[in-house]
Design goal:
2 copies of one chain form a homodimer. Chain A is of the alpha+beta class. The first copy, chain A, is 36% helix and 32% strand. In chain A, β4 and β5 form a beta hairpin. The radius of gyration of chain A is 19 Å and the shape is globular.
């Protein structure tokens, strides 16, 4: 990334604020880059949606956004293709050692993942329990099973251990979640 | 969309500028909404990527972007899932009656679509010849065939007529491009 002159200080301020919970995102972005470079999969993080109120047009290709707001995304952060399968997921971090609170994830993001599952894609969440240094992948259909049978607003880590998959840290890719997707594809094929 | 007070005039200026070539985009967005509501497919336009330089944080959920720039997207505008298939495409309009100039589309977007094809997704461009009121869908592999055998920097409309598919306008969805995707899926299955 390149920054225009004179905004560095302001930018650092931004980073120190927004960096909270960015490690998982960075790990996933780096893993996706590894997958892309090695032609294993094509999976990208979608840009954060904003609504623009004011723009300065200096020229055809020189627009500076002067006022904009972040808006609630209607979908998840990541999607793409792997072995001909449509992949879609959301990634979240939590400091809790015992449970993942559902307040961390929007209802319409769960709905989105459910419709991906209905259309025969592979939809899941990746949740990192920071205090434990453990990262789990949980398929949306298993998450929905939990939600259908429980009234509590958080998913205990025991559920992730039982029904999800632990993603082991590695050097490159940092978070090799496609190894887990391979297991899911295999299971799906066995069920047929 | 809601606009804060006092920016309306500025916003109108923006619309009148940026509305150029937005009709196809609007038609596709409306068609995607139709597909979504009727649970036919889950296909979204990705947000336009920007890089943010200055943000005012008034509170945890109240950030106003004060300076940002549009950046070149590394992928295409649209992707999603239909009948278990990964769908990915770019949509462009041209005023030309004879050819689609390749200057309208970034090289890395074509590379992206080619890698989608390699990973067994369905990648294409939708091109509307505004002066003719004709909209075509052309698969990336056919576009690549053209590029491999021609040095010219534009694809004549005759090539779209021969190797692409005309998408007929309809009321709802406005641009029923999934009808064409059905044909492509059928053809791919026949080839196996």
């Amino acid at each position: 990334m390149r920054y225009p002159k004179g905004v560095k200080k302001q930018y650092e301020k931004l980073v120190s604020y927004s960096n909270r919970g960015m490690c998982l995102e960075n790990d996933i972005n780096c893993s996706n880059e590894f997958y892309l470079i090695n032609d294993i999969a094509v999976i990208y993080k979608k840009p954060t949606p904003i609504t623009v109120n004011k723009v300065d047009y200096k020229g055809r290709n020189d627009a500076v956004i002067k006022e904009a707001h972040y808006i609630t995304p209607s979908t998840t952060d990541y999607n793409g293709i792997y072995k001909g399968r449509y992949i879609d997921f959301e990634a979240k971090e939590t400091m809790s050692k015992t449970a993942f609170s559902l307040s961390n994830i929007h209802k319409h993001q769960l709905d989105h993942l459910s419709s991906i599952y209905r259309h025969k894609g592979i939809g899941f969440v990746i949740v990192r329990f920071n205090s434990l240094s453990e990262t789990y992948l949980l398929e949306i259909e298993k998450m929905n099973d939990f939600l259908a049978n429980n009234i509590r607003k958080s998913i205990p880590i025991t559920f992730f251990k039982e029904k999800g998959y632990l993603i082991k840290d590695s050097f490159n890719p940092r978070i090799d979640y496609l190894k887990i997707v391979d297991l899911i594809i295999k299971e799906n094929e066995n069920e047929k």
